[in-house]
Design a protein that fits this description.
mainly alpha, about 75% helix, Four Helix Bundle (Hemerythrin (Met), subunit A)
Length: about 130
């Protein structure tokens, strides 16, 4: 696996860690699609991955924000802004541009996901676990 939920990414909040693990799984499947030389037209698979990400992150962010609210987490507002920016970026995807250069587009999704997984989860979400 290229993308794997390692110990250092865990928040200690079981349901959040499980949901993050799913995000790592989507990133890994995106990477495997990029490396798949046998699938020449990846358009449908890329669109399916983006749709899965849209659905899953909406579900995850809602759950995470509800938890933050329940513990009166002080940095919740900042988290919400970052979550909304992530969703906006996914919703602003231009499907025509995917078709023109599929591998480049997959690479851009991976970079976006990689930044999110390493920056947001590692730096921001871990703090939620420390506030319990």
């Amino acid at each position: 696996m290229m993308y794997e939920m390692k110990e250092e990414y865990k928040t200690g909040i079981e349901f959040i860690d499980e949901q993050h693990k799913m995000l790592f799984d989507i990133a890994d499947r995106t990477y495997m699609l990029l490396k798949n030389e046998y699938t020449l037209d990846k358009y449908d698979k890329v669109v399916a991955l983006i749709e899965e990400l849209q659905d899953y992150t909406a579900f995850h962010f809602k759950a995470e924000e509800a938890y933050m609210e329940s513990i009166n987490y002080k940095k919740m507002f900042t988290q919400k802004i970052e979550h909304e920016a992530f969703i906006k970026k996914l919703n602003d995807v231009d499907l025509k541009s995917i078709d023109e250069n599929q591998d480049d587009y997959i690479i851009s999704i991976l970079q976006f996901l990689n930044d999110w997984l390493t920056e947001h989860i590692f730096k921001n979400d871990k703090l939620i676990g420390e506030k319990r």
